[in-house]
Structure formats: C-alpha cells, structure tokens
Amino acid sequence: MSKDKNKKHRLEEIPYHVPLYFTVLSMEGRSFRRVKSVGRIIDACKDGIELVIEFPVQPGHVLQWDDIHMLGTLHTAMVKWSMKEDDLYRCGLKFL
To answer: In terms of CATH, what superfamily is 3-95?
Structure first.
C-alpha cells in the first residue's frame, strides 16, 4: 500500500463533531413511529458513522438525516449497536 493511500485512509477516519438533526424510524408492535432527535457525529467511515444521540436508539432502528454539504441528499442508516452514556446514547450506524 502506498504512503498516499495510507494517508487518505487515515483522513477518512478522523473523528469530528458535527451536530445533526435526525429522524428515528422504528416499529412498536404494529405501529410505525417517527421521532425527531438531535445528535452529534463523532466518527465516520465509508460504511457508517458513530454518533451520540438524545433518543434511546436500539439495534434495528433506522435513522435518516439531510446531508448538510449536498442539499437534497437524504442519508439512511441502521443502528447496529447502542449503549447508554449518562443521558445520551452512543451508537454505531451502517449506511443502507
């Protein structure tokens, strides 16, 4: 692997702190639920993101948010893992 390729890969994994507004999509019994919540991306790669969010997300929940850099682009990802940290939830999402 070339030195430039290693540098590019490292740059893609640099943690950053971007506040975003999410819609959490989940099923509760037979009911479909949409909840607005705010979160902060703390790490990202090409397959997904890690974030801290106010809503108690669980594996299987789907999150959607607008891309702040490309207007009109909607991102969708599924919660793969989640753990409570104080009053927030830290979770890992995989892009769909």
So the answer is: predicted glycosyltransferase like domains (2.40.10.220)
